[in-house]
Amino acid sequence: MTIASGTKLGRYEIRSQIGEGGMGEVYRARDEKLNRDVAIKVLPSAFSENTDRLHRFEQEAQAAGALNHPNILVVYDVGMHESAPYVVSEFLEGETLRERLDHGPLATRRAIDYATQIARGLAAAHDRGIVHRDLKPDNLFITTDDRVKILDFGLAKLSHPSSDQVAQTDIATRKVHTDPGTVMGTAGYMSPEQVRGGSVDHRTDIFSFGAVLYEMLSGRRAFRGDSAIETLNAILKEEPAELSASSSNIAPAIERVVWHCLEKSPERRFQSASDAAFALESLSGATSHPTQETLAALSPFSYGRLLTRERVLWLGICAVLLIAVFAFAVAYLSRPQTNIHAVRLVLAIPEKTTLPARVTISPDGARVAFIANNAEGKRLLWVRALDAVTAQPLTGTDGAISPFWSPDSRSIGYFASGKLLRVDASGGRPQMVCDVREDRGGAWNRDGVILFAGPEGLYRVSAQGSTPTLATKIDPKEEAHRWPYFLPDGRHFLFLGDAPTVENHHIRLGSLDSQETQILFGAVTRVAYADPGYLLYVNQGALVARPFDAEKLKVTGDSTIVAERVTEVGENHEFDFSVSDNGVLAYQSGSNQSQLVWFDRSGKKLEPVGEPDAYAAVALSADGRRAAVGMLDADGRHSDVWLLDLSRGTKSPLTFDPKSDGAPVWSPDGSRIAFYSNRAGDGNANIFVTSAGAAGDDQLLLASDSDDVPTSWSRDGQSILFTRFGKAHAGVWLLPLSGDRQPKPLLQSAVFDQGGASLSPNGRFVAYMSNESGRFEVYVQSFPPSGDKWMVSSGGGALPLWRGDGKELFYLTQDGKVMSAEIKIGAKLESGLPQQLFQTRIKFGFSDYPYGVAPEGSRFLINAPAEADDPAPMIIVLNWTASLKQKQ
Questions:
Q1: Residues 6 or more apart from 110 whose CB is under 8 A from it?
Q2: Per residue in 454-465, pLDDT tens?
C-alpha cells in the first residue's frame, strides 16, 4: 500500500516516499504541531490482524521510544493508518551502511569509528533490556556528519513465517524464520543460537555486530552461500576467511576483536557491548600496519624523487637533531641510578566505623574498597581514593561481603543476601547480576565474564546479568573451589581447591575453555597474580610472592616473604590482601590469633580466659564450667580438640592425631565430647567421640563418603545432630546412639543449604540455619520435624544456641552481632522480635561455633581476634616489588 503525498496520518502530513523493504515503506513527513520533518515507517496491515502481535508491536515500539542515545534512532510516536501500524521517528539525512559498503570496504580507522558508535548504541539498549535481533548494514544509517544510527530496534522479532520463505538467498533484507518461537534474523548476520531456533539474549547482537564489522573491514560478508541454507550452515560450522587475506593494513588486534564477537558459543563472545566498545576504543594506536605509501607520506622527502637542495638541507637538520637526541640519551643512561624504594602508607579508618576488612585495591591502583560497619552497625561497602582524605560508603550496599573490582576500575562486584551484585565505584544504585549460594570470592575479566564460587565448583556469568554456568569441576578429594583470580590473558584463572584435609588443599589453574583444571602447588589460601610475574598468597600467616610465568603458566621459583602477619577474614582462607596492575599492594596486618573473652548481655567485657591462641570452634559444657575448643597448630593447617577449665584458665589437649579434629559438642552429662576428624584414609570428615576426662580415648561413631560435622547432642543423650556437607547442598542429619545407629536425614533440600542445628533443652524443637530465602536465617521446627516451622531471625542469622531453660534463642548475624529472641512454648512455639544484644568481632563460618552461652543466658564466651580493641590497620605499599628485589 503506497500512501499518496499530502495524506494526513494524525498530525503528520506525508511529503514523499523515501524507501521500502520487507518491514514496510518509509516516508518523509511533516510534523505540523512541532514544525519538523520526521520519518514514518508504515508496516504491513498484516500486523494488525493478530491482536497479540499488534500488542507486541506496541510494546516493542514503546520500549524503543524509551531509548535515548545519540547512536540510536529516536522514536517519537506510533499510530494506525487504515489498519496498518506505523512508527514515527527522527528524519535522517545520509545513507545506510549497506549503501556505503556497495562502494567497497571502509578505511580501517573509519570502520573502527563506526563500530565503536554501534557498540555504544547497543550497550545503551542492552542496559534497558532491549535486544535488536536483526542487526545488519541495512539497519545502520550513516548521517551526513558521520554519526551512526541504529534503526528498527525491536521490530525484528515481530515478523512471523510466510509460505514463500523456504528457499532464500542471503540478500541483505531477506529474513529467515526458525522454530520454536519464530525467532528471526537475516541470513548471513544471524547468530548460531538464532539459526538453531534457541533462546537469544544481548550476545546475539554481539555476533551480528561482529559480522557487520567484518564486512566493513573486508568489503565481503563474513558468512555467504549460494542459498540461505548454505549460509546458515556456514554460520554454524565454518569460520570466515582471515581478514589479513583482504588487506595487510588490518592489525591483528582488530582481528582479535572481530573473532571474539564471532565466537560460535555465546559464553565465549564479549559478554557486553560496552566491553566490545572498550576493546575498540583501545585500538586507536593499533589500527594498521604502515605501508610504503604511508611511510612516504610521513617522510620529509618522498621515495623515488631526486633530492633537491631544500631536501638536502632538511636532511641535514634531521641528522643534527638525531645526534642531539643520541647525546642526550647517552647522558641520561650514564647518570648515577637512584634507588627506587617501596613506600608504605597506613590508611586511617573512617570515624565511627568498626570491623574494617577485605581492603581491595583497584586495578589502576587509584582507589581502595573495603567492608566496614557504619555508626548504626550497618555493614556497607566503602571506597577511598588514595589521593583523598576520607572514604565514602556506597549507599545500597547493605550486607556487602567479598568485594572485587572490574578490570577498568569503574565498578565493584560483591555479594549480599544471596546475590551477586555490582555497583559503580563512584556511587549509584547496585545492579543484581545473579543469585548465588556462596560468597567465597569473585573475579572479573575484560570480556565481561565474572567467576564466582558455587556449590559444585566455580561458575561463570556475564557482568550484565545472565544465568550462571559451571566453569570448573570439583575433584573427588576436594569440597569446594574458592577465591578465583584471572590471569592477564583473561582466559586462564587461579583459585583455591578447598578440601577436608590440608594435604588436599591446592592452588589450581583453570581456563574458561574447559571445566578441567590442574594443580600448581599445595596451599591453604586465596591467591592473586601480580605483574611482572608473581603469585601472591599467604603461607603460615605471612604474605609471600612466588615467581610465575603467566605465558607458560608455570611456577618458576621459590617464594619470598612480602609482609608478616596478614589478617584472615572469617574462615575459608580469605586472607586480606590485594594487588593492582601497576605495583600497588594493599593488605590488612594483624595477628590471626584470637582470645576467649566473657561478655555480659550489654557487650561489656568481663574477663579474658587464658592467653591468646589459635582458637577455632567453642563449645560450653552444660554446667558452664568447662569449654571444649578447636585449636589450630603453629602453621594453621591442622587442629586438635582441647579442654579448658574456665575457672583457672588452663587448657589440656584431648586429641593428638596429626590430621584435623574440630567442632566439639558436649554430651548432656559432660562426660564425653563428639567431634569431627579427617584422620581416615579417605580424607572425609567423620564423627568421633572421646572421654572428657581421658585424652586419647577416641572412638569412631560415623564414617561416610561425605563430610559430617556434629552440632548438638540431645538432652536425653540418645542422639547427635550433625551437618552433612553433600556434593551439592548441606543438610541436617540425625545419628541415633542406640538401636541400628544408622544416620537419618532430618532437614534436607536439593536446592538450598541447612545446618548448624541445635536441639532445645526439652527435646521438642530444633533450631537451625537455612538459606532458602536467599540468605541464611534462623528457623525453628518441631522435633521430629512435622512440617511446621517458624523463622526467628530477621535480616539474616546463623548458628543458633538455646538458653538453658529453652526460653530464649541466641544467634549471630554475619557482621558479628549477638542477637536474642524470646521463645514461648505453649500449644505451639512463639518467638518474640529479635533484639540486638551487642556487637562483636567474631570470626565465624557455616560449621564452627565461635561463641558459647552460659546456662542462665547472662554471659557469653566469645572467640574474637586478639586485637579487638585495636583494629588491624589497612596498609598500602607503593612499588611493592622494590622491597622484594632487595630481599632477593
A1: none
A2: 878 999 999 999
